[in-house]
Amino acid sequence: MALKSMTAFGRTSHSFEGWRLTVEIKSLNHRFLDIILRLPKRYSPLEERIRRLLREKIARGRLEVSVQINGSPPGVLALACNWELARALVTILKNLKAELALEGEVSLAQVASFREIIVPSEEEVDLELLWQELAPLLAKTLEDLQAMRLKEGQALLDDLQERLLKVEDLLGEIKEIWPVAYEAARERLRERLQRALSGIEYDPARLAQEMAIMADKLDINEEMVRLRSHIDQFRHYLSLDEPVGRRLDFLVQEMFREVNTLSNKVQEAKINHLAVEIKGELERLREQIQNIE
């Protein structure tokens, strides 16, 4: 079994030829796969490659990915000026001076000290060389993340199996009680019909037929069989080595539906109490399933 939690964290760093690369990935619960990527703008051509790599490894969850790229390889000394930003900055500083009646002139030092005015020339960056180093780092971070997801998943698996056993035990108690409770319900129905028809002529055969139809509507055997089938299917999904979170969530909804139908049919207090306990365990199952890939 390889159940995976959606909650985990991975971080790795690597230095080579003047570069310092750091990758952080945090995964959280989410119904689908949602990737939020923070990557320096100048390296945006690598974004789709990064996303593709993430999609190959992760099927479900919210991924918050930070890729930090600092430094430059030896020999990359060319610098460029962001003229548009520089002109905008000078205009703002002059307007600020005039508006607030400030002394002094706008200086080169003020403009040059502003972040991203003077930057390494983008055309000098060898993206292919960078990707050769970044791709294995991403893979290693994902490997660490998956290891944590598996560890957390094992804890979730243990809890789910324990709660599933409780649901089975409670269903077993209902099944044991039901034959006697069903006969009692049929007897109460028979008595109500007899009181209602007291003093009225009626066809005994027709009455028996109508009573059989009404009694069948009180029977919960079908609900118990379907609930048992859902439990078996749930356990089968837990054994699969693939993402099963959404399928488990669907099964729990189906289990809730069967238990609610069962409760509405039965007037036996003990069975209704057991049904409430089953719904409590199903609610806990549903809460845990939200953490599963």
Automatic annotation (TrEMBL):
Domain Endoribonuclease YicC-like C-terminal: 174-293
Keywords: Endonuclease, Hydrolase, Nuclease
Coiled-coil spans in chain: none
GO MF annotations, alphabetized: hydrolase activity; RNA endonuclease activity
Domain of life of the source: Bacteria
InterPro entries the UniProt entry points to: YicC-like_C (IPR013551), YicC-like_N (IPR013527), YicC/YloC-like (IPR005229)
Cofactor: a divalent metal cation
Pfam families: YicC-like_C, YicC-like_N
Residue intervals of the Endoribonuclease YicC-like N-terminal domain: 3-156
Family recorded in the similarity comment: Belongs to the YicC/YloC family.
Protein name in the entry: YicC family protein
Species of origin: Thermosulfuriphilus ammonigenes
